[in-house]
Amino acid sequence: MSVRQTLLAAATASILAMAPASAQTLRYANQGDLKSLDPYTLNESTTHAHLGHVFEGLVARDKDLKIIPALAESWETPEPTRWRFHLRKGVKFHNGDPFTADDVVFSADRVRKKGSNLQTRIPTDAKVVKVDDHTVDFILTSPNPILNSQWDTWYIMDKKWAEANNSVDPTPAAATTPSFASLNANGTGPFTVESHQPGVKTVYKANPNWWRKPEHNLKEIVFTPIGSDATRVAALLSGEVDVIEPVPIQDITRVDSSPNAQVLKGPELRTIFLGMDQVRDELLYSNIKGKNPFKDIKVREAFFKAVDIELIKTRVMRGLSTPSPLMIAPQLFKLSGDFTRPKFDPDGAKKLLTEAGYPDGFEVTMDCPNDRYVNDAAICQAVVGMLARIGVKVTLLAQPKAQYFAKVLKPGGYQTSFYLLGWTPGTLDSHNVLFDIMGCRDDPKSARGEGNLGGYCNKKLDELTDKVLQESDMSKRDLLIKDAYAIGAKDFGYIPLHQQALAWGVSKKVKLTQRADNQVLLYWATKQD
């Protein structure tokens, strides 16, 4: 069977899946808000999941994270630098507009525009060409065998709708005034947006005209952000909500012992890490003037060795984390076992600071979200205490993710000196980490390093990253990746912490698929009466 036949067969199997009967309302609560409905505002898993109920990509990922057809029913590569996608016919946007190649070309242009946080989805120099109404070519300047590996979260927008509603340009995360596209949505997906009140509530209604047979039995989803851990858990246990994410680690046993709810647990692919501004000549937030301490490798190494990762695992994460020596989960890179973390060594860290010219330490502000990752603010607070032991005074600025991301991401000007971030590679591949997070961001014409908030840069790593993208021999490719990670580790460019564990609270009336990318996708949910 050819690749195209295989893809068509997979699509047919999905379409034939029968929808369960007895439509229900499902109430979902997350610790963070859904600020914008514009699918290019924020490259963040929870936001992608929210918007994945409304929008669709040319491809999707199934319950096991395998790529499957979506708005493109099949594709091929007639030559190494050209991909051809055959679009699904008969698909309509929620307002009735037909889905065509014009929407794909428009979305490819829009996602690469200034203000988009998803610019790396498509190479900046790629040409997107309409062949006919249902065929699109992506013409590249060099081979890219994983071109579509992130396209499950590159959602296709309606060109006609966007033009009619002054939404041709993406809404940046730092925008202070909402755009039409940030408050309204028009996708092709299984649910429509009935209402959206940022910070309050978003209501989705089942799309009766969805091209695919639904696997859910929901008539509507009601999403409510609940920042308080105690309130969120109480809402689940009382039956006020049906699904919460995350369950605080300290409440897992309590939820599991309740008569009407349970915790879905599993390993997550996200890596939590610390980063430092290594590009500015003077830090934005520090008492050191005229120079940047983080440009000194000894300072970066000192910070790394001052972090007691085992204490974070046992005290903060209560055992539900896997300390990591790399910026990627071991499930996603088979040679990760060849790396080990530098040992916790506060005395050695203090000595390194002295050698760098900071015998009494220095002051710096740390940016941290307080509603995005498991125990994010608590991790940051623990790091503050650890760095105090080597004389570094850290002022912690922990904020809700909307304000945090608006400040530290590219649209906000990378306004951070020291920060905590989490990253799941959208491709589930090391290239994404090496390009987006560890790549130099010094070329304004390239999307490389878009998620590199601290500006770490090593040109040798970039050269290896480019070779990784084009290498088809997997053994050779793994060795290139290993060499690249070795450079980053030697530079102490980042401080990887751990992979957190998944913990979703789910009513016993609800059946839900848990994916390792931590996207709560309710189009696979069923709820009993």
TrEMBL record:
GO biological process: peptide transport
One Pfam family here: SBP_bac_5
Region forming the signal peptide: 1-23
One Gene Ontology molecular-function label: peptide transmembrane transporter activity
Subcellular location field: Periplasm
Any one cellular-component term (Gene Ontology): outer membrane-bounded periplasmic space
InterPro entries per the UniProt record, alphabetical: Peptide/Ni-bd (IPR030678), SBP_5 (IPR039424), SBP_5_dom (IPR000914)
Principal location listed in the UniProt entry: periplasm
UniProt keyword Signal present: yes
UniProt entry tagged with the keyword Nucleotidyltransferase: no
SUPFAM superfamilies (UniProt xref): Periplasmic binding protein-like II
Keywords of the record: Signal, Transport
Segments forming domain Solute-binding protein family: 66-441
Classification via PANTHER family: OLIGOPEPTIDE-BINDING PROTEIN APPA, PERIPLASMIC BINDING COMPONENT OF ABC TRANSPORTER
Assigned protein family: Belongs to the bacterial solute-binding protein 5 family.
Protein name: ABC transporter substrate-binding protein
Source organism: Bradyrhizobium lablabi
